[in-house]
Amino acid sequence: MKKFMLVALLCLSFPLSIQVQAKEAEYATGTPEIHNRVMGVSEELRCLVCQGQSLGDSNSEFAVDMRAQIQEMMEGGMSDRQVVEFMVERYGDYVRYRPPFKASTLLLWFGPFILLAVGVAVLYTNVLRRGKQADEAPLTEEQQRHAAALLKQDSGENKA
Amino acid sequence: MKLKFLLPLLIFVAIAGVLWKGLSLDPSAVPSPLVGKPAPQFELSQLHQADQTINRDSNLGKVWLLNVWASWCVSCRQEHPLFMQLARMGEVPIYGLNYKDERQDAIKWLADFGNPYVISAHDYSGRVGVDYGVYGVPETYVIDKLGVIRHKHTGPVSAQALQDTILPLVRELKKG
User: Fold this and answer.
1) CATH architecture type of domain B35-175
2) Distance between CA atoms of A85 and A70, rounded to whole angstroms?
3) Residue A37 · residue A88 · CB < 8 Å
4) Which of A75, A129, B46, B162 is in the most buried spot, having the most CB atoms within 10 Å?
5) Do A51 and B27 make contact, defined as CB atoms within 8 angstroms?
6) What is the model's pTM?
7) How far is the alpha carbon of A144 from chain B, nearest alpha carbon, in Å?
8) Per-domain boundaries in chain B
9) B123-145 confidence digits (pLDDT tens)
């Protein structure tokens, strides 16, 4: 078992060591203003080789190259918006971390709220019904006496 | 009233169904917005003859495959025998886009493993690759007679993908 854990740990640490070796982002050139814009835009774009990371977060070669290209495009006079459009034309809406609002993404935008509404509705009707059940079925006198006796007996036991 | 006991089972079946479907989806396969659109224009030097160029319109009028490859790309080796076989069959011309590669390395790679490509374009900077939405090498595009991208395959092409998807599409496009 110990051996197995060790192997598993080794396997897990492998991608990490590769990542550490990956090239550090280089921003030797470019004004701070351009640099900020590059970082701003690349935070909004998905790194396609390391999904789950943005172009800004990732140090993969793909992301580094992409940032260099974005910087070049901005220095060439493209606005942030044009850069995003450039990427969407090539890689699809999927590259955007904030998907656009359109017919095919309606479920994506509203799905969670619909689920929440369904959940609240279920909860509400359940609570309401339980309340009603309690009201509709009051205890008979005999049941109440029995209940009181049980309670008494219980508290008596506790004292003892 | 009896049905209520079935509810958890139904929910379980629904969730299991969704998860089961998820198992067969490939999250790294990003749908390309370029399918159905004209292949992006490019003008690159040829890998073997640096003084000559190749562009998109060189292949207008025929159905062709554009295969993005590199000598540093491990899974390119995996699909390479299949492309060699396809090139021998001669059913569809394969053009290479040598992506972010040193010229000598690429030429050596082809000398070592065989060259299935009619011509390879040398995309050293990878800018043409970006225009084609390349994010993982190898990638393969089917381009029709009018220069429109009809299909994109990300990752190494399997014999199955070739037989079931790519070749039938090529045959159909050749007819049209």
Assistant:
1) 3-Layer(aba) Sandwich (3.40)
2) 12
3) no
4) B162
5) yes
6) 0.69
7) 28
8) 35-175
9) 998 889 988 988 888 999 999 99
